[in-house]
Description:
Rossmann fold; alpha/beta; 7 helices; six-stranded mixed beta sheet; 30% helix; single chain
Amino acid sequence: MNYSTHNTLLYVEKLSVAYGDKTVIKDINFVEKDVVRENNITGQVIAFVGRSGRGKSTLFRAMTGLIKPTTGKILIADTETDSENDAKEVHEGDIGFVDQKYTLFRNKTVYQALLFALRKKDISKEEKHTKIMSYLSDWGLEKVKDQYPCELSGGQRQRTAIIEQILCSGHYMVLDEPFSGLDVGNIEDVKNAFNLITSTHEFNTIIYSTHDIELAVELADSIYVIGYPTIDGKRTDYGTIVKHFDMKELNLAWKDFGLDHIEIVKQIKATMLNS
């Protein structure tokens, strides 16, 4: 499937995080570029997989500016400027973060929460209302716009949390285990949410972790395995990227899940078992 890559959207170099003398992740390096397909708005979907305790959540917290890295840097495209090559260091709020609990304001309705998410945007009240109603319509939340989080289903809470982060953060979105504990119907809802995000703008970039390797292979166009590397025959106790699967290069991105995808699932599982 024909595609080209353009300006860099995400650049991570020599990233490490240590708590005291315990190094959790080290030497994380990767670059993701804007993927362009003809006649098709194509956002980026990047999956991180790995065994529990290998540092995925720590990496996500660093990438979203919630914790300061011990070394290294994280840059994203500065989409507020006209230049294609402007980059900026990540600060809290630049990249949306949806945790496993879909944390929402308990005392705000869905509509009020989304309005609050737009508080820093320099647009009129009418424009904010139009924008919110458009998202509520696209995401099937119009009927619950005046309800509070305690009145919503898990899927509705998750969708509200995702829209909230899109509205206040822009093009980048990190989701920590978005498929965890969901039934088949809710998993389809999240897949649809991914499609909605990536088909809205070229720069929209979803970064997510999952223990479901099949879902990583089915949905992502770039997959990173985080594990403990083996150096000089000895396994270390910090997490880093041990393998990268570029599904675009493998000609498996944006295709229905098939036998070739199953082969990648096997390779990823083997990599995880050894790290």
